[in-house]
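User: I'm preparing a small set of examples for a lab meeting where we compare how different chains pack in three dimensions. I only have the primary sequence for this one, and I'd like the structure in token form so I can line it up with the others. Please keep the answer compact; I'll paste it straight into my notes.
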Amino acid sequence: MPRHLVLVLGDQLDRRSAAFDGFDASQDAVWMAEVAGESTHVWSAKPRIVMFLAAMRHFRDRLVAEGLPVDYRALSAMPTVDEPRSLASALVVSLGGEASVGRGRPGAKRAGSALPPGRPAKLIVVEPGEHRVREEIVAAAREAGIPLEIRTDRHFFSTVDEFALHARGRKQLRLEWFYRPLREKHGVLMEDGEPAGGAWNFDADNRGAFPKAGPGKLPAPRRFPPDGVTRAVIELVNTRFADHPGSLEAFDWPVTPEEARAALDDFLVYRLPSFGRYQDAIWTGEPWLYHSRLAAAMNLKLLDPRDVVAGAERAWREGLVPIEAAEGFIRQVIGWREYVRGVYWHFMPEYESRNALGATLPLPAFYWTAATEMNCLRDALSQTLTHGYAHHIQRLMVTGLFAMLAGVRPQEVHRWYLAVYVDAVEWVELPNSLGMSQFADGGVMASKPYCASGAYIERMSNACKGCRFEPKQATGPAACPFTTLYWDFLARHAALLKANPRMSMQLKNLERKDAGELRTIRRQADDFRAGLG
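Assistant: Understood. Below is the structure token output for the 533-residue chain.
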């Protein structure tokens, strides 16, 4: 009978986690489980499933090599009759009960557990990254009648309670108000109490597009070909989840702490120097550009964000990268990453149901196939399905922008983002997709909707070259759907947007269009939306 049973979830693969504080291998045990429900509650793409399962199995092997007792429940290639369907039901079964919680199959009995007979005195888990999972584990512990200790996640620069204190009494939440004190507290990019370089951010220097000739020869990120453990997971996923979207032919993500550290070192040397200037640029056929590919490793806790931030700051102090590159990247880690986590836990579970713009359209089927004539969308969706990745501007200003302009129900957009990206854990994905991308939270995450016409995509990418649609046209057979939907979006939501001073210029441009043109735009937008079904 273990004294403590430490629950390690798929996004908590950190040996220095608070879950292991006081761990005694002679008295305690670790519990981990692969369950189909974590891949099917949203229709998870194959790269995302492999990322989680491969990283989990490597972490399990590390613990076993250290001599820690580990009860690991692995998925089989084919579902079995008594297989628990959720984390909660798998836990109850491991504890000797019946799986009646968490959408498990009622009546499933304990089978194959590595735990000795008996019940632990306590269950220990670090704060889960998803409200649903937290509720399931709490319910499982209650059903089993075993005390549950939920420990603070030390992986982050701030805590959920600290964000709640920051939010108390504020009518508005904004990243900048949270980001600056956090930098000061941790002494990041600070000099004599002032921000390094004389400014808190350098956005004006970080909005560059590539020249017409393109980005030139790009430094390819370091690849991590699958080892035996990962190859076994790939085979499992191709069999068990054969009908799920995505491809595994190009899977090369870091799935161990050593690989994640090597990926960080590679980024700091070869791509961070140009990251700032081109972080918003898009170039078709080039999924990586100067981006880091580190979010998945950080979100699964293979890589400590403190090491990431320290490495970027050190590169600047050594004169290897300009301040705008270092600050722009650091803000994504110590700024946005921490801020969205705070927003998630501060407003959940109600936050997930928000729909401030009243969007009702189903998600277009081409989001799962990339079968669309729009070059920018086809490129972003194709690389998403191939690699489980798209950089932040592709997510915000291509796939997300189209969905918002078209009026897609934000909960469907949220579930798609959660399903397809290897770095998607709900605490970070939901506020970014539902709030930042879709403005469905009414302005909690962003001070204005990120709406733009096809002209923005033409300016920031080469996607419009050769596309059959003309980004400057809003009506007619060659009209760019982004542009048609953009003007229709402004017209449909003008009453709501008038209260937002940051939308005044766009609304003034809308007022310059006569009623006849707006009626034509509305008809073309309606016809286009009707054809998306």
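A couple of notes for your slides: Residues 4-151 form a domain with the Rossmann fold fold (CATH 3.40.50.620). The chain has three domains: 4-151, 160-221+271-347, 365-531.

User: Perfect, thanks.
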